[in-house]
Write a structure and sequence with these properties.
By secondary structure, this protein is of the alpha+beta class. Helices cover about 50% and strands about 20% of the residues. The N terminus and C terminus are likely disordered.
Length: about 230
């Protein structure tokens, strides 16, 4: 599966073309988890994975196994939009909630957990979409701002992280180097202003630890080692 992402002001968008086959579902779920973690949207990971599984399964069942499809994730400020594009113009069948047929149950499940959902016609077929509401989260806001700053900084100094696909194995290590480079530049600016860099770092660390629950702070080293 090939994925590419485009980040614009106040919006993150990930586009993933894939072949609609049962073995692909686990890979889709892994990518969704990784992408939402990178966007600071982990609170809706479970719902998003379930929505993607249901939508992709419907493509396999009703459009045909092996058909071409595309998963689109749009990360907004207050919600995540999930779209599943395929080349069929046949819209999902809404069956009664007490129907004994398996067909249609996934749609009821989707409607029950989504803030909104629908179907739109596209130039090549249709897209079934749903929107998942994000709970208020100050730390997620910080991550969103950091993503915007990092990508602007990367383009400014022509860092390779901005050119790598998010799925690339090298992306994480290069992104860490970019973060370190940005911090070094900030420390040079601090010194140029006649300020104490150690005092600034200590203050930042103190606020960082106060913002995050103890369990999440202790999990950061393990997360880096993955």
């Amino acid at each position: 599966m090939y994925r590419f992402s485009v980040t614009e002001p106040n919006q993150r968008r990930s586009v993933l073309p894939f072949t609609a086959e049962p073995p692909q579902l686990a890979g889709l779920r892994r990518i969704v988890r990784a992408q939402l973690a990178a966007w600071g949207m982990s609170p809706v990971v479970d719902e998003a994975q379930l929505a993607v599984t249901e939508l992709a399964s419907n493509v396999i069942k009703h459009v045909g196994e092996g058909s071409a499809a595309t998963l689109v994730l749009d990360g907004g400020t207050d919600q995540l939009r999930v779209e599943l594009h395929d080349k069929s113009r046949s819209e999902p069948q809404w069956l009664p909630a007490d129907c004994n047929e398996e067909c249609g149950r996934g749609l009821h499940l989707l409607v029950g957990m989504a803030a909104a959902w629908g179907t739109i016609r596209t130039a090549t077929g249709k897209a079934v979409w749903c929107e998942l509401a994000l709970p208020p989260d100050k730390n997620r806001r910080r991550i969103e701002r950091a993503v915007a700053v990092m990508e602007t900084y990367g383009r400014t100094v022509d860092l390779p992280a901005a050119k790598l696909p998010h799925r690339s194995i090298l992306h994480r290590s290069v992104l860490e180097e970019s973060a370190a480079s940005l911090i070094i530049d900030l420390l040079h600016w601090v010194v140029a202003q006649g300020l104490d860099p150690e005092e600034i770092l200590d203050r930042a660390q103190m606020h960082f630890e106060a913002d995050l629950p103890t369990a999440r702070v202790s999990s950061y080293p393990a997360a880096r080692a993955e």
